[in-house]
Design brief:
Layout (H helix, E strand, L loop, with lengths): L2 H20 L10 H18 L3 H13 L12 H15 L4 H13 L9 H10 L8 H16 L5 H14 L5 H6 L1 H15 L28 H51 L10 H22 L10 H5 L16 H12 L2 H51 L1
Helix pairs in contact: 1-3, 2-3, 2-6, 3-5, 3-6, 4-5, 5-6, 8-10, 11-12, 11-15, 12-15
Length: 407
């Protein structure tokens, strides 16, 4: 590795060590400096096995050191966002390339439960973060995690309840690299077998407190939230509003399309009659040339605006990993992903579905842009109808005047 990168890694290690010593609450007995050091060692081990390029290793080790620094905020929820900020600030101060900073941020974000790695470096990072699940350290670290969560949530977990949470998590967890699957998965399965044996056949019925895995700090704030049921009721109301609003917009769009279709059909018939009947007789009735031309222009103009009202527009159909991480892309609209590969879209949807705020933001964007499209449709449709209405009046008057003067 280049001397400059090695120096930055050494400074990052010293900086993170100081953060854990001075800023991280001692109640975090699992997410501490020892865990970070273990993750960094595991990341280096997996990287060495795959012999990844030095640039990738640089990104990986930086992410490993910074991935839990967000606990210095005193809050476990969304600590990844805090970690991103700390890592970005440090790397900017070292004049690290913005692309490297973005890749480090993506690696840290990928460790958020449930893990969602996309690149090889992110997969290595995720496996390193939970490397201990397939080692002899699992028991010791699981005791630390239990103590940490009991202190944080001020709630004591029964042994059966905690055991069941671990069984559920271990069974749902997967290692992403072949190396960890071969080396760690057998021991992880052995831990599952031992836990199931201690738990017995019946297990423990899931409660509200068990909705989240022991390695995540999301909805578990409901432990101390007496309004959890009320929040769920409000959430159902919000979902109902989204559903009704979306249906209303879709119905209005269908009405606009039908109106445009009527306008196109009527004017097409009139234009056909003009060309098939009137044009052939203009040599006998030359005084009708101007009215016939006026009527033709009116019909063609009305058709043009009606077609513009229904003409679809397709966007590029591509998004970047950064767009998903920063919640910029609305995955509910096909125009934003139709050029992407299935694997990329599947990963992006996983990111969307595990983030309620991202889901709501996407639905809001979807409704908003449906409204924008509707406004354009009805504006063009109104122009088409106005042209038809006033144009037909003028054409009838023109035909009347022409007939009078001609006679």
């Amino acid at each position: 590795m280049m001397d400059n990168k090695a120096q930055i890694l050494n400074e990052a290690q010293a900086y993170v060590t100081e953060i854990f010593h001075k800023e991280v609450d001692p109640q975090f007995v699992f997410h501490n400096l020892e865990h970070t050091q273990q993750v960094a060692r595991a990341a280096d081990e997996i990287a060495a096995h795959y012999q990844i390029p030095e640039d990738d290793r640089f990104v990986l080790i930086l992410a490993a050191w910074f991935h839990d620094t967000g606990f210095s905020s005193g809050k476990a929820e969304d600590h990844e966002k805090e970690s991103l900020g700390i890592a970005t600030e440090f790397l900017l101060s070292k004049n690290v390339d913005p692309e490297v900073i973005q890749r480090v941020s993506s690696c840290i974000q990928a460790t958020r439960m449930p893990q969602s790695p996309l690149s090889q470096v992110e997969k290595i990072m995720c496996d390193a973060d939970l490397y201990h699940l397939g080692t002899q350290d699992f028991k010791k670290m699981n005791v630390q995690l239990k103590a940490e969560q009991e202190a944080y949530f001020k709630k004591e977990f029964g042994r059966k309840e905690w055991r069941q949470r671990n069984i559920d998590f271990l069974e749902s967890h997967q290692y992403f690299t072949d190396y960890c699957q071969q080396k760690l998965e057998p021991q992880k399965q052995e831990w599952i077998r031992q836990l199931r044996k201690k738990q017995g056949d019946k297990g423990v019925k899931h409660t509200q407190e068990m909705e989240i895995s022991p390695y995540s700090f999301g909805k578990e704030s409901n432990f101390t939230n007496p309004k959890a049921k009320e929040d769920k009721s409000v959430e159902r109301g919000v979902q109902t509003i989204f559903r009704i609003t979306s249906n209303n917009h879709i119905n209005l769009s269908e009405m606009a399309d039908k109106k445009a279709s009527i306008m196109i059909s009527v004017n097409s018939i009139i234009v056909s009659l003009i060309f098939s009947v009137v044009l052939g007789r203009l040599e006998y009735y030359p005084h009708l040339i101007v009215p016939a031309l006026l009527l033709t222009v009116v019909c063609v103009s009305a058709i043009t605006f009606a077609v513009l009202a229904t003409r679809p527009s397709i966007s590029t159909g591509r998004f970047t990993e950064d767009d998903i991480r920063n919640k910029k892309t609305n995955l509910l609209f096909f125009g934003n992903f139709h050029q992407m590969e299935l694997e990329e879209y599947n990963w992006a949807m996983g990111e969307l579905l595990r983030d309620k705020d991202y889901i709501y933001n996407s639905m809001i964007k979807d409704i908003y842009f449906l409204g924008v499209v509707l406004a354009r449709k009805y504006r063009l449709l109104r122009i088409s109808y106005n042209i038809f209405m006033f144009g037909m009046i003028l054409a009838v008057i023109a035909f009347g005047v022409a007939s009078y003067l001609g006679s």
